[in-house]
Amino acid sequence: MHAPIISPSILAADFSKLGDEVRAVANGDWIHVDIMDGHFVPNLSFGPDITKTVDKVTDQVLDVHLMIENPEKWVENYRDAGADCIIFHVEAVADEQAAIDLAEKIRGMGVRAGFSIKPGTPIEPWLDKLKHFDLALVMSVEPGFGGQKFMPDMLDKVRALRKAIDEQGLDTLIEIDGGISASTIEESAAAGCDAFVAGSAVFGKDDKAAAVEELRTLATKALAH
Ligand code: DX5
Ligand code: ZN
Known about the structure:
This protein is α/β, with parallel strands linked by helices. Helix content is 34%, strand content 19%. A divalent metal cation binds at residues 32, 34, 65, 177.
């Protein structure tokens, strides 16, 4: 068992002081950067320039979640912007082979490759392809907005991933994104997640570092069982 990875999502940060917000969660492990294009999801966030700005103020791992169409056209831009991990949606690529090819391209650039899966997309077709990916991101809300309610049924996908990863002896990380808070992180850790994205549960608090610490404590406790 390794220590839980807490990845605060800057989507919920105050953009008027983004640098300070990122520095306020320096006790987190990663920084989650949500990229939305207004097409793949019905919302727009930011792009490579803001990502680069975030990279300048932190040494933390930049966990870049692409909620965009044609992700293959953008991976170089995000590599150049400082992404350490690039996660694209399986729903945004043509088929399974295209996902494997894109993961290979990302890894070839020296960046970790992840896939993400929307709530309505089954995980089964991906369970025998995990060796191509460094990370699997399970969405526990419909992608597009922060502050939504956690969907506990998504933990079935986490359990299926955990079983497949362990059986295949892989070190692919399982990350969960959407509605993670002090009341949902323990069940997520117990289901087998390694990494936890939290937007409003961190940036919605006055003491953001304390919120990160609380999430870490709860996840660590649940992982120990
Ligand atoms: C949703 C994004 C999430 C979002 C999570 O589409 O992918 O990363 O920031 O926000 P919370 O933690 O508030 O649900
Ligand atoms: Zn995200």
